[in-house]
Design brief:
With 303 residues, the chain is of the alpha/beta class. 49% of the residues lie in helices and 12% in strands. The protein has a six-stranded mixed beta sheet with strand order 5-4-3-6-8-7, sandwiched between helices. It has a two-stranded antiparallel sheet with strand order 1-2. Strands 9-10 form a two-stranded antiparallel ribbon. The protein is globular. The structure holds iron/sulfur cluster and zinc ion. Keywords: ATP-binding, Metal-binding, Nucleotide-binding, Signal, Transferase, Zinc.
Length: 303
């Protein structure tokens, strides 16, 4: 197979795009996909500072590198989850990588908030990944708001988005379906959330990391076996093998035809958000989910 751009021997075949690229031209394809997403959804305004959530995994590191190369003013943010078997390595990888790019990085330590993922897991009987996701989203947003970042970028890729969309569809969860997409505009108390890698698959991002020599965390989180998304990812991987382009079609058609319907439903139902009585961030209850988690963990520790 030959490279679509220069006709040299191809190194990466992309069946869903019906094309292939050599090692030199592949990063141009990658960049154009990211640029296209940013422009199409007007994700970043000129001169806007972008806070990038970095976990140490391939997606977030590829994202921060690509955004910097596109000329955006980026700042990394890592949440140290205090998981003994994985957090020190994830933090080291983020610090080393951001230093090599000369990109500022801030680390928020859950332990300074009286929390850690193992502690929360031992005290709260809910799936740990959903609690962990809630904590990360809260601290990313809190840092963005308190440090005047109007845009928060995450490394969610097409496989993440398709799996999440599929999980929400299996449950017909209208509330989640109404706000799934590559851009969530800013509202009072929330920075805008963008996913510039949403058109790229894990395979495509892994190839970018390999060709650009990005060292990233490969060991899974010790709690990842409990996550449900890998099941959906496996199903979609099989489907994509049999029906090339199924993932992108499912997701793009949802954005075009499905999401507006659910968004209109959410507008009609919209429940007012109020300031959390404890931390002041927006919530639909009197106390936000994170403050309730902190209270539960604190009470258990005092008992
Ligand atoms: Fe958090 Fe679950 Fe991801 Fe581990 S696998 S980092 S617990 S969301
Ligand atoms: Zn709160």
């Amino acid at each position: 197979m030959k490279c679509r751009k220069c006709k040299a021997l191809a190194a990466v075949a992309l069946p869903s795009h019906n094309t292939a690229f050599c090692a030199e031209c592949y990063p141009d394809f990658f960049r154009s996909q990211v640029e296209r997403s940013i422009h199409r959804h007007k994700m970043i305004a000129p001169q806007e500072r972008v806070l990038v959530a970095v976990s140490g995994g391939k997606d977030s590191l590829a994202l921060i590198m690509q955004l910097q190369e596109l000329g955006h003013d980026v700042h990394g943010l890592h949440v140290d989850l205090d998981i003994p078997d994985s957090s020190p390595e994830a933090r080291r990888v983020c610090e080393t990588f951001c230093e090599s790019l000369n990109v500022p990085l801030t680390v928020v330590e859950l332990r300074r908030e009286g929390l850690s993922i193992p502690l929360v897991k031992s005290k709260i009987k809910r799936p740990i990944c959903s609690v962990c996701g809630k904590l990360k989203r809260y601290y990313f947003n809190k840092f963005a708001i308190e440090n005047n970042f109007s845009v928060l970028a995450t490394g969610h890729n097409l496989d993440d988005e398709v799996s999440r969309l599929f999980a929400n569809t299996v449950r017909w969860d209208s509330a989640y379906l109404s706000d799934q997409g590559p851009l969530l505009p800013a509202t009072a108390g929330f920075a805008s959330k963008i996913k510039p890698l949403y058109r790229l698959t894990e395979f495509e991002i892994a190839n970018f990391c390999f060709l650009r020599g990005i060292e990233h965390v490969t060991a899974p989180c010790p709690y990842s076996a409990k996550a449900s998304f890998p099941i959906y990812k496996g199903l979609w991987s099989d489907l994509e093998t049999r029906m090339s382009g199924a993932k992108v079609q499912f997701y793009e058609n949802f954005l075009r035809d499905g999401r507006p319907v659910f968004a209109a439903w959410a507008d009609r139902k919209e429940s007012a958000l109020v300031a959390c009585s404890s931390c002041g961030y927006p919530t639909s209850a009197e106390t936000c989910g994170v403050c309730r988690i902190k209270n539960m963990v604190g009470q258990e520790q005092e008992a």
